[in-house]
Design goal:
single chain, alpha/beta, Rossmann fold, 6-stranded mixed beta sheet, 12 strands, 33% helix, 26% strand, disordered C terminus, binds adenosine-5'-triphosphate, binds magnesium ion
Length: 269
């Protein structure tokens, strides 16, 4: 599972400047096979930008990315996909007017030839979609439903299912549970457990701090474009994470005073 390397992903010295802001300043990130890493930080801390560097959507000014010990250089999401890195973006990038199966197969629909002419093999597509959904435990009654008619949680599942169907080694999810109802959040978290149990390494970006404690092995906190802390999940608490995110030094006193509201809602603003 480890391909002989301790790290599936190792990003070192990653910097990116969007004048006038140093969005990423010498950032490091490591990820082991099958590990779920929670990436947290206040709005604008640089989480999405760092993830996009790993998914090939943003090209850093400097820094190195290694996948399974090999240095890679991504200049597009296609490059990252070829290295088995997939990202589910915050906006999901689904086609609303296309059905579930069509979205899962977007751009690589199965074809069959009739008298030498290629036709879309819709039967195969729907059967394979059903298989994929079942394997991931995604509950959707009909693969012919248009995505615009699905719930937020189902849409999120389809976006994750699509990413998972490329057989990634690394799956990055940017705020996958932000807009979901309670049961839908649980379904997405279960999906994260399912893929990580298969050895996929997951980066979960979230402001819902309670989710971190349900699926993550480790968390990494960013503050104004820099790494500020890293904790194994069993060695930290929601109070400490809140303090690290807002840049306060953690103390038992601040955990007791004035943090109850933050702790319940996460720190999304
Ligand atoms: N394409 C861009 N052009 C200019 N500035 C950018 C660009 N992308 C990001 N930034 C800036 O970089 C900083 C970090 O943004 P980023 O989206 O990575 O933060 P984030 O941690 O994901 O925040 P949030 O939790 O709000 O999603 C912000 O100040 C943002 O305005
Ligand atoms: Mg973001």
């Amino acid at each position: 599972m480890t391909d002989g390397h301790p790290y599936r992903v190792r990003m070192t010295g990653i910097s990116k400047r969007y004048t006038p802001i140093q969005t990423l300043d010498n950032v490091t990130l490591t990820l082991k096979p099958g590990e779920v890493l929670g990436l947290v930080g206040d709005n604008g801390a640089g989480k999405s930008t760092l993830s996009k560097v790993l998914s090939g959507a943003v090209i850093p000014d400097s820094g190195t990315i290694e996948i399974d010990g090999e240095v890679v250089s991504f200049s597009s999401p296609a490059d990252a996909r070829a290295a088995h890195v997939e990202m589910v973006y915050q906006d999901l990038s689904l086609c609303d007017t296309v059905d579930v199966a069509g979205n899962l197969f977007l751009g690589r629909e199965p074809r069959r030839r009739v008298l030498g002419v290629p036709f879309l093999d819709t039967k195969a597509m729907h059967a394979q979609t059903r298989d994929m959904l079942d394997r991931l435990g995604i509950v959707i009654a009909d693969t012919r439903l248009k995505v615009e008619n699905l719930s937020g949680g189902q849409r999120q599942s389809i976006a994750i299912g699509r990413a998972a169907s490329f057989e990634p080694k690394v799956l990055i999810m940017d705020e996958p549970t932000a807009a979901l109802a309670v049961a839908e959040v649980e379904a997405v978290l279960e999906l994260i457990r399912t893929v990580s149990a298969r050895g996929v390494s997951v980066i979960l970006i979230t402001h819902r701090l309670q989710d971190l404690f349900l699926v993550c092995d480790r968390i990494q906190v960013m503050y104004e474009g820099r790494n500020v802390a890293e904790r194994r999940i069993e060695d930290t608490s929601i109070e400490e994470v809140v303090n690290l995110i807002v840049g306060r030094k953690f103390s038992a006193r601040s955990a007791r005073h004035g943090l109850d509201r933050d702790t319940e809602t996460g720190v999304s603003a």
